[in-house]
Amino acid sequence: MLNQKFIDIVKKILDDNKLNRSELALIWNVNRSTVTRVLNGSRPIKLEYVKKTHQHFGIPLEDLMF
Q: Which of 4, 25, 49, 59 has the least C-beta neighbours within 10 A?
């Protein structure tokens, strides 16, 4: 359930910034299928993804932490 909070925030970021999963993959330094799996909940969320999301988009870590 806590992972869902991070997933929802990332999906909102993608929508608000008109980004696709490939562009997010570049930010996270992973491939697109990894982004898809993370957003589907089938792959664990790494702290690295949280940090890079915070650094790139300026979302407070408190809001992103799961």
A: 4
Phi, psi dihedral angles at 65 (to 5 degrees): -65, 145
> Dihedrals φ, ψ of 58, to 5°?
75, 20
The 3-state DSSP class for residue 23 equals helix
Domain residue limits at 32:
2-64
Report d(CA 62, CA 7) in Å as an integer.
14
- What end-to-end distance do the CA atoms of the chain give, in Å? 9
> Could you tell me where the beta strands, DSSP code E, fall in the chain?
none
How many domains does the chain contain in total? 1
pLDDT digits (tens, 9 = 90+) for 9-47: 999 999 999 999 999 999 999 999 999 999 999 999 999
CATH number at residue 40: 1.10.260.40
